[in-house]
Amino acid sequence: MSWEHHHSASEILASAAEALKRLGEAQRARDLYKSAAEEEMLALDQVDKTKARTLGVTAVSATALFYKAGDHQAAKNLANQFLNQSSIPLFAREQLGEILELLDGELIDATTTNRFLKTLTPFRTDAWRRWMTASVAILYSFIPAWAVASTINIRRTTGLDIGWNASENYRFVITLCLIIAAIAFSLLRSKANWVAVFSFAGVIVCFYRWSAFTNAVKANTGLSFIPDSSGIGNQFIGAGLFDLMVLVTSIALFGLSVVLLVKGNSNKPQAVP
Questions:
Q1: 140 and 177 in one domain?
Q2: What domain range includes position 26?
Q3: Is the pLDDT of residue 64 over 70?
Q4: What pLDDT sits at residue 251?
Q5: Which of 56, 145, 222, 223 registers the highest number of CB atoms within 10 A of its CB?
Q6: Is 273 among the domain residues?
Q7: DSSP sequence for 258-270
């Protein structure tokens, strides 16, 4: 049998599995996904090894079908097998790597995989981090933007050359770090965690310097508490509850990015040169 025959059979079985999944027949859907994966494995045996793209597409398809069938060990073994082959193209390596991240990180429970999987891009930790970072960056950017608008208005009405407040400067840098992290999650894949670690570390450093500046102000003025400020404002002069929320969120996302970065490096297979 040819590659076309087995690949077409696999597509038909996978379509039938999708239909059963929509009807709530989870076990029968998994069985058909398993049969589709086996057909794709037969197709792999017929692939012309000089056709790198066809090989990559078939390898990703077989791995994903085993994943949807709930046979995570078979999916993991197959992904590692092809990642160790130098003939596998970059796009296939990236998709196989994504499946491995799901498997190694146990981000989706094997018993509910087929209830939620529809494509190769299910809701994952990366999507959650991307959404969270982008939301915080957009909302937080309104604070320095409002400061810019206020300063421009004061300069227009008074003619005075008003400088920036220290807390507003920290907010500008924090906003920039968050935007960089959000862009990294949207545009980068394998390097996103590296950029995120440095970006969120930048946010944490900004808050540290903000706190040091506040303590210096209190020491120079002999005050133990900044007048007309809350507990947060006494630690970060001019700050409010949302600034604290951004700090806590950044610390959490920094920790998560470090964990995923370390896990990704430890689980990354070595490609054959």
A1: yes
A2: 3-116
A3: yes
A4: 92
A5: 56
A6: no
A7: HHHHHHHHHHPPP
pLDDT at 247: 92
Residue 44, CA distances (Å) to 82, 90, 243 in order: 11, 18, 54
Domain-embedded: residue 272? no
Do 80 and 210 reside in the same domain of the chain?
no
Let me know if residue 131 belongs to a domain: yes
| Burial class, 213, CB count within 10 angstroms (exposed 0-12 / middle 13-18 / buried 19+) | middle
36 in Cβ contact with 65 (< 8 Å): yes
Q: Identify the pLDDT of residue 87.
A: 81
The total number of structural domains in the chain stands at 2
129 and 259 housed in the same domain: yes
Return the pLDDT at 108.
42
Decide which of 35 and 265 is more confident: 35
